[in-house]
Amino acid sequence: MKTRIVLITIVAISLLVTGIAMAGIKNSKHDLSSGSTTTSQKSDVVGSGGTDQLCVFCHTPHNATAGFNPLWNKSLNSTTYATYGTTINGTANVAGTLSGVTKACLSCHDGVNAINSVVNLGGAASNVKISGAAAGAVTIATAGNLGTNLTNDHPVSLTYIAGNASLRALSGTGSTSVVKVSANATAGTDLPVGSGAAAKVECSSCHDPHGTGNGYFLRATTNQSNICLVCHNK
Ligand code: HEC
Ligand code: HEC
Ligand code: HEC
Ligand code: HEC
Q1: Å from CA of 102 to ligand 3 middle
Q2: Residues 25, 103: contact at Cβ < 8 Å?
Q3: From the alpha carbon of 42, which atom of ligand 2 is closest?
Q4: What pTM was computed for the model?
Q5: Is 17 helix (H, G, I), strand (E, B) or coil?
Q6: CA–CA separation, 204 vs 38, rounded Å?
């Protein structure tokens, strides 16, 4: 009897630990390592041109791309994007003028830049071999491919002007600006809209690429459109 209780406890604890690990990057769709269980496009096994590293697809501790934080392990994006344009309230974003974090996401999600090309793996630039694909650069092959035409996506790299589109007041200024989730929606974290000196909405305002425990790496849930209501008082 005692052994059974102990066993049940052990199973319960390991389930709990697995549950917590799921909220992080391991086995999320951003775990492109050879051991990943989720992503359809992931690294081949070590020894066949692949890697079991997780962070390396985005970050490197040394010899990162200069002038593009945080320690970015991909080349600067030279693609020109068609941006949303002018909103009903007259806020414009000009073609090609996307800020850093958004460009970081698009360095895989635009369907042009390779998901497996890194600036530094073991001291050299490399195309990590993707399992089942030919050696060389591989682009994203799923609904995650947003393309270079962002006119049909929620505007990004756009100045956040409280009041427009019923947008709620900001807390903080410049790079520390957030929209407080606590007062507006029931679950999630405050949404960061800080980008340099200006408050702007970026891909990372709604998503945390390291995983959140919510679907789609979202910082607040889509239940009752929680995530939208954090910013828009509709
Ligand atoms: C799919 C790409 C991707 C992967 C994989 C990834 N990161 Fe990040 N990381 C980013 C992006 C994009 C940012 C910038 C986010 C922002 O400014 O909001 C970032 C920012 C960070 C930051 C600084 C901001 C913060 O939240 O503290 C740290 C530290 C970090 N990552 C660590 C890691 C580590 C450690 C791993 C591996 C376990 C990892 N990342 C894997 C994309 C990634
Ligand atoms: C190293 C390449 C890379 C970078 C950089 C990257 N992603 Fe991804 N992302 C992927 C891949 C690969 C997938 C999985 C596609 C699939 O298998 O469906 C994915 C999936 C996603 C998904 C879908 C998750 C799901 O549960 O279906 C979201 C949302 C996402 N990424 C957002 C972002 C955002 C936001 C950023 C920047 C902060 C970012 N990604 C940066 C490669 C990347
Ligand atoms: C205003 C909030 C917001 C911004 C900004 C945003 N997203 Fe999303 N994104 C969402 C929501 C919400 C979903 C989930 C949609 C659903 O449930 O169908 C999503 C889904 C996704 C998906 C899954 C595939 C799909 O089409 O549903 C990807 C990939 C993705 N986002 C990437 C990005 C990237 C890259 C950026 C920046 C260019 C970005 N997102 C900017 C809110 C946002
Ligand atoms: C991080 C804050 C933030 C979140 C979260 C957010 N938005 Fe927005 N949204 C903005 C900003 C900033 C604008 C631009 C307002 C302006 O100045 O015109 C905007 C504009 C819009 C517009 C108007 C576009 C136009 O042409 O006038 C719509 C519609 C919209 N958002 C829908 C949504 C929906 C749906 C969601 C949830 C999936 C969402 N937003 C989540 C910040 C946000």
Answers
A1: 12
A2: no
A3: 12
A4: 0.93
A5: helix
A6: 21
Which pair of structure tokens corresponds to residue 183? 């007062």
Q: pLDDT tens digit string along 30-40?
A: 999 999 998 88
Domain boundaries, the chain: 24-155, 160-234
Phi and psi (nearest 5°) for 194? -90, 130
3-state secondary structure 74-119: CCCCCCCCECCCECCCCCECCCCCCCHHHHHHHHHHCCCCCCCEEE
Residues in the chain: 234
- Cβ within 8 Å of residue 175, ≥6 positions away: 194, 195, 196, 197
pLDDT in tens, 186-234: 678 899 998 878 899 999 999 999 999 899 999 999 999 999 999 999 9
Closest approach atom of ligand 4 to CA 90: 18
Alpha-carbon distance of 230 to 234, in angstroms, equals 10
Who's near 58: CB < 8 A, 6+ residues apart? 30, 72, 73, 74, 104, 209
Measure Cα distances from 39 to 30, 33, 35, 146, 149 in Å.
7, 9, 10, 17, 24
Decide: 179 in ligand 4 pocket, CB within 6 A.
yes
